[in-house]
Write a structure and sequence with these properties.
Distance between the termini: 23 Å
Number of strands: 26
Low-confidence stretches: none
Radius of gyration: 19 Å
Structural class: mainly beta
Number of helices: 2
Length: 328
């Protein structure tokens, strides 16, 4: 088990706990005891995963590695990026490296890269989108047959799509570009693709695509954009976010939800692929802080056996708490 409390990362195994301090800048340390400042300065860990005995994560736009031995922990900074963090880590086909993509506001003169990091090879660029093609990469997902990667990109109509990147680094646009194919998460079966849309400007759905025809064959409405989700082999566990309309460039608008989002709550759902049913597991109200400064209403999702763990952000009562629900 791994826990984060303020700037201390704790690793618990076999009734033994080892801790390591995160490199919070000196000017931010007085704010570690104030939740609102933690949100304002984005003092949290993103995209945590383990490969080859090492732990990798993002913190304050830096990629770090924790090398764990029987007696000690060693924290190493791998690289500083011009982004806060990616949304997801993905494991490579051989499970020996972690993949992630650039998640920035985007400069149309710069390439958008996909990176690989591992214990043996360090950090390297494995693919680059040409400048102006996409704004950023939402997710990278190994295909059903492990022959290629699905790449989910955003955010405008011309940048949003689902791509296929093969092992020889040949890429093709599978569906898109369109807001209808703007997504942060998908999974697949032999015949179909299931993806959740992530748009604050059009209605959002769980969409099912027939792989052969590439047509959307079924749509299930959801109350808002989906950024975070996981798949357990039968169910998609996901959260919906509360965020403003990005087309309205006014400061006061950042307190108001987009008109297409059903209500001012973060919802946790289970969608079963076999019976095509969606069940709400939990909901919590978004707080009234500025969403540009203090973040959207959202919840990160984790699956632990037959329970779902979720950590809400930007909400009332449950912020900085982890909730566990048995969803079977």
């Amino acid at each position: 088990m791994v826990f984060l409390k303020r700037n201390t990362l704790s690793f618990c195994q076999n009734n033994e706990t080892k801790t390591i301090k995160l490199p919070v800048p000196l000017y931010l340390r007085p704010f570690l005891y104030f939740k609102l400042f933690l949100r304002l300065f984005r003092i949290d860990i993103r995209c945590f995963d383990r490969i080859g005995g090492n732990y990798y994560f993002f913190f304050k736009n830096h990629l770090y590695c924790v090398e764990k031995s029987e007696t000690s922990l060693l924290l190493k900074q791998i690289h500083r990026f011009k982004m806060s963090s990616p949304l997801y880590f993905a494991k490579s086909f051989d499970k020996k490296s972690i993949l992630f993509g650039d998640y920035t506001n985007g400069d149309k003169n710069n390439k958008v890269n996909i990176y690989s990091v591992s214990k043996d090879d360090g950090l390297k660029i494995v693919f680059s989108f040409n400048p102006g093609t996409v704004k950023h990469i939402h997710n990278i997902i190994p295909s059903f047959d492990n022959n290629f990667y699905w790449i989910l990109t955003g955010n405008s109509d011309l940048e949003s799509g689902i791509w296929k990147l093969d092992k020889d680094n040949n890429i093709e646009l599978f569906v898109g570009p369109s807001q209808n194919f703007r997504s942060c998460f998908m999974c697949e079966t032999k015949d179909n693709i299931y993806y959740l849309t992530d748009s604050p400007i059009i209605e959002n759905y769980i969409n099912i695509i027939d792989k052969l025809s590439k047509n959307i064959i079924h749509k299930i409405p959801i109350p808002g954009p989906c950024i975070f989700a996981m798949f357990d082999g039968q169910n998609i566990l996901f959260s919906t976010s509360v965020e403003p309309n990005p087309d309205r460039k006014r400061f006061l608008n950042n307190y108001k939800k987009s008109e297409i989002i059903r209500d001012r709550s973060v919802h946790i759902y289970k969608y079963n692929l076999q019976n095509n049913e969606t069940k709400e597991l939990f909901s919590v109200k978004k707080d009234f802080h500025n969403m540009k400064l203090f973040g959207f209403g959202n919840a990160n999702i984790f699956i632990n056996n037959n329970t779902v763990l979720f950590t809400p952000t930007g909400v009332k009562y449950y912020y900085f708490k982890t909730v566990e629900i048995d969803y079977e």
